[in-house]
Amino acid sequence: MTALLPRRGLAQILALIVILAVDRVVSPQFFDLRLQDGRLFGSLIDVLNRGTPVALLSLGMVLVIATRGIDLSVGAVMAICGAIAASLADSHGLPVVLAAALGAGLICGLWNGFLVAVLGMQPIVATLILMVAGRGIAQLITEGRIVTFSSPDLVWLGNGSVLGLPVPVAIALGMLILTGAVVRGSALGLLIEATGGNARASELAGVGTRAMILSVYVWCGVCAALAGVIAAADIMGADANNAGLWLELDAILAVVIGGTSLFGGRFSLVLAVLGALIIQTMNTGILLSGYPPEFNLLVKAAVVLAVLLLQSPKLSGFAGIMARLRGTKP
Amino acid sequence: MKGLPPVVITAFVLVAGFALCAVQFPNIASTRVVGNLLTDNAFLGIVATGMTFVIISGGIDLSVGSVIGFTTVFVALAIERWGVPPLVAFVAILVLSAGFGAAMGAIIHVFDLPPFIVTLAGMFLARGASFLLSTESVPITAPVYSTVSDFALRMPGGGRLTAVAIIMIVIVIGGALLLHLTRFGANVYALGGSRTTASLMGVAVGKMTVKIYMLSSLLAGIAGIVFSFYTSAGYSLSAVGVELDTIAAVVIGGTLLTGGQGSVIGTFLGVLIQGMIQTYINFDGTLSSWWTKIATGVLLFAFIALQQGLVALARRPVAKRAGAAS
């Protein structure tokens, strides 16, 4: 599993440490953890818990972006699957609810993948369709209301705990390990990178690029579905208008912060999740600092720009410094 | 390009859709409804005109909705709290938004970054800045506003062509002339066709990129002013998600998202189609507003699939494309 922890994560880890240190200054109790009723509590756990939806989304998104694609529909897919889970929760058992929600996510992913891989549409456009229509579909399912439920099983998914960790965090961790094992444990990850690097060359070399592209969108849909179910379970209800709103942008941001290029090719699952945590640590820090949450967007904009400039091919100076730090040549 | 150009198909969809609506609700076919449709969608038409330039040049601008939001707040605060004369406030915000667009264009060009992410940062920045200015809705009571809101040309049949609708129509016509008749417009198409080719042909790619995003943000600023006329208030959450409606209108209007093809008139028709769906849903009364989104999504799919077919036909001799690039 060494491939899961690449050497190039230094910048992200440093960034996370710096932001954590700032948070510690802002709020002295930031690192306090206490065990209560078999579950850990504290700001750090809170960061993990709140960061789960974006972390899950970024797991799927990073694979899509690695194939040189993008999936704008994940927020809408979250809304659809959250709506399905919430409407079924009180009348069906947890397995049925999960199967229905994840199945819906799978179908959404299949649709996106079909448009991109089979019809050859540009990913931005193809997923824009579901992004626009998806929220309408979610509202159709909830009939425009905010559907609430009280099924203890589903609520446990959002608020329960496993081995001291909140269930959402455990799920995200499980998904990270599962995705990592499948993608890096086999040649799949390499083939995905090849597809993103040069689709035509890969196809000539015998890579089933269409199957690759189709499957990453499906996986992205499933991850989004899981995030949607967790988000719904967390608030014990589904709000078709606001569930997952703009989270696709956060997920893309997390992937970009994680160092995966929007032009496809090499990717890192761990760093994408780390990117999601960086975003959430920033958000939590701003909340704790007492500044109005409006600052969130400004800070986010500054971070996006900084990360972009660092990745820019034109700023080879920084790349040189980073390479020297790592002891390799750029 | 063989067969019907996409604009003709867009026009056909608009006429056929309008005819269907008119058959079911005869009242739709009145100048009153048409006038309202133009007024309600004035800001969308203006901002979509700018987006057309960006998309034809092969880029995308996600920041327009936030720029509209920022403009409404800025204008409202400037006029109501800071005591600035409305005209000065308008000029200031237009300079500010044009500078904002120019900065985004410069970053995209100089650092060779994807427009999607740069304008995404711009979207966060503009929305965040408008939150900073004010998180509450600021009503505008300046006399200019009531004068402009009350102004309207009477159309036969009792319809009112309001000032904001007139501004929109003027901008759409101006945009169409700029795109189709000037060197600037030709360069926009050249950039969208191929950046390298355009640069080899002597197009100043950097300057063009800056100017195109400047135009888009400037028009978003004008759209923001129009939006503030329309609502007589400035609110930092106004026009959230408008960038999506705008891109949808441009695509439905037959502009290729890969760049190189499209027209302002098509975009205008795309805006009208979205407005028409909204009007139909209002008239029907039993349909909920979320049907607008689903209908827009279906239309988007239909138009993109159609364009995909046209592109595939045009490129058939060349090998098939695997894994489209963004």
Automatic annotation (TrEMBL), chain A:
Please tell me one Gene Ontology term that the record gives under cellular component: plasma membrane
> What is an example of a GO molecular function annotated in this UniProt entry?
transmembrane transporter activity
Q: Which UniProt keywords apply?
A: Cell membrane, Membrane, Transmembrane, Transmembrane helix
TM stretches of this protein:
48-65, 72-89, 95-117, 124-142, 162-192, 213-233, 245-263, 270-291, 297-321
Q: Does the keyword Cell membrane apply?
A: yes
Subcellular localization, as worded in the UniProt entry: Cell membrane
Q: Does the keyword Membrane apply?
A: yes
- Membrane protein topology class: Multi-pass membrane protein
Superkingdom in the source lineage:
Bacteria
Q: Name one Pfam family in it.
A: BPD_transp_2
InterPro entries, A to Z: ABC_transp_permease
Protein name (record): Sugar ABC transporter permease
From TrEMBL, chain B:
- What UniProt keywords apply to this chain's record, in alphabetical order? Cell membrane, Membrane, Transmembrane, Transmembrane helix
According to Swiss-Prot or TrEMBL, what is its membrane topology? Multi-pass membrane protein
**Transmembrane found in the keyword field:** yes
Q: Which residues cross the membrane?
A: 6-25, 37-56, 62-80, 87-110, 161-182, 212-230, 294-314
> What's in the GO CC field?
plasma membrane
Q: Name one GO molecular function term.
A: transmembrane transporter activity
Compartments reported by the entry: Cell membrane
In terms of Pfam families, this protein maps to: BPD_transp_2
The principal localisation class reads: membrane
**Quick check: keyword Membrane in the entry?**
yes
| Protein name in the entry | Sugar ABC transporter permease YjfF
